[in-house]
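Translate sequence into structure tokens.
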Amino acid sequence: MAQQENKYRYLIKNVGVLTIGSFGSKFLSFFLLPLYTSILTTEEYGISDFIHATVNLLIPVFTLNISDAVFRISMEKGRDREEVFRTGCQVFGAGFLLVVLFFWLNKIVQLNTLLSDYSGWCLFLYLTQAVNSILLQYARAMDQVSDVAVSGIISAFSIAVINILCIVVFSMGLRGYLFAMVSGQALADFYLLYRLKAGKILCRIRCRVSKELCRDMIAYSLPLVVTTISWWVISASDRYMVIWLCGVVENGIYSVAYKIPGILSVMQNLFTQAWQISAVKEQENDSAGGFYKEVYTQYHICTVMVSAGLIGTSRLMAGILFSNDFYRAWNYVPWLLFATLFSGLSGYMGGILAALKDTKALSVSCAAGAIVNIILNMILLKTVGTIGAAYATLISYMVTFVCRIIFVKKDAGILLITGKNIWMYVLIFMECCVVGMENRCLRYSITGMLVFIMLAVNRDTIRTAICKLSQMRKLRRK
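Result follows.
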């Protein structure tokens, strides 16, 4: 019993620490949204979103997703963690040279003029984000979760202060916004380099790498390149298609709509980061299956209820956060929130599959969703307009979710879906439809009723979670 409680205490502790670090970063950027939408034009916001989406695609391609291997291989017993970190950095260095070559060639042949105009910013964003990814994963493997949190706080406040100076005081517009992003990320990188003593570790780097270690790391990370690209296709490629079929201005509005689902995404990512550590630590225990299922039950109800609350208040939040022409982005928010729900649940199962080192299952499930996303975007954007991208994203995440349920059942022998879960999804679908009603009184009455039904159906699960937290608090006092 005590051992079981320790598992939950360790997980909750990591979630708490990461929450402290990310609360500032994510929620500060969320509350700065009115500033961005009031000063930046829809076109400028669309361009910034295009740059971020492009960099997020290039990182897994040119780093071979080596940061994930740094985390997972470092967690294995008997591994030299410093050697794993050095090998990861060498793979990153080789990839960075190829990225520089890529941007240079694009500058010459003008394959993409927008990318060419902002190639310097893209390169700096790539460098700071890719380095940050490796450092964060190594910190997690070293169980230095508090340093992960502090780096998030440093990044958040740096970006906020520099953004206010550059955008408001010096009126630098889009370039000021990008400068703040690069600077804030770089300061967080310097902090992690210091805390992890990365300089001392890298001083002992050799020209020749351990072929066996490098082979093991790439064998783990290479299938995850497909996973990350497929995940990018589902979450970001719709912006490219919106630009292509609807224009940059429309993409700026659609991009803003992602900010409210970003609240839910932040919560999910915080939990997933902590969960991956616990999942790897527990995967060799006989009781791992029961632990995975019990945690999922609690996580599922939490995610569903937060989703329901955000969907019900999405138009109200849009009125507060979205200025001027951006307000009409509220149309896309409920469906993107519903999509984010399935994204988070898929991420939970991804932690289990990563712990079991079944990277093939991770890549296949994401690839299936990505293929569906591309096909549906092509069809729906032409037939129903920009909201078709939100529908395509939702269905794609649902496909990934179903695939991972099947793989987890096959690999871990546990079934994570129940009839009650399916009814929750039906009720949330109904809520998404109701949010579009113009009669405000009727809209809030129906959404309130749907949320109440969800709470009533899950009362036993909620009661169990509260009792478990209460027991843990009593044990801690003893």
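Note: The longest helix spans residues 211-246.
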